[in-house]
Amino acid sequence: MIKMVLLAFFGSAFPVVLFNIDRKKIIFTGIAGALGWIAYSIVFDKTGSAIMASFFGALALNIYSECMARILKTPASMFCIPGIFPLVPGITAYSAITYFVDKNFNMAQSKGLLTLGIAGAIGFGILISSSVIEYIFKLRKYCVNS
């Protein structure tokens, strides 16, 4: 588990160079990826569902990203986009294409639908967490100003 968390950390921290993000935020970006992977691993161990695990991984990752964006006064996408890399279903998509090329259409369909489900769960997790965080901060701002 520790090895995978470290790989998720580095898998999120290294793309920061490609995106030209401020070098001072590399560690926070790596933490975002590691946190998303920890949430993914916990949910996957409990449920066995990659789709549900991806949803909760993206949810945890984006809540962290939104909070760090407000703390460091930077866009949340600086943490969320590189942080989501460990959750992207690349091997599943590759498997779907490989099965399709090998004319194993049942497995290709199964892996393709799993890939779409995981991608949709990641998107939905980001959507829900962004909306909830935005609502909480607006509510907090409203309560403080009243």
From TrEMBL:
Top-rank taxon: Bacteria
Topology of the protein relative to the lipid bilayer: Multi-pass membrane protein
Signal peptide: none
Domain Threonine/Serine exporter ThrE: start-end pairs: 5-132
GO biological process, one term: succinate transport
Pfam families: ThrE_2
Annotated localization: Cell membrane
Keyword terms, alphabetized: Cell inner membrane, Cell membrane, Membrane, Transmembrane, Transmembrane helix
Membrane-spanning segments: 6-21, 26-44, 50-67, 79-101, 113-137
Family (UniProt): Belongs to the ThrE exporter (TC 2.A.79) family.
GO CC terms of this entry: plasma membrane
Protein name (Swiss-Prot/TrEMBL): Threonine/Serine exporter ThrE domain-containing protein
InterPro entries found in the cross-reference section: ThrE_2, ThrE_Dicarb/AminoAcid_Exp
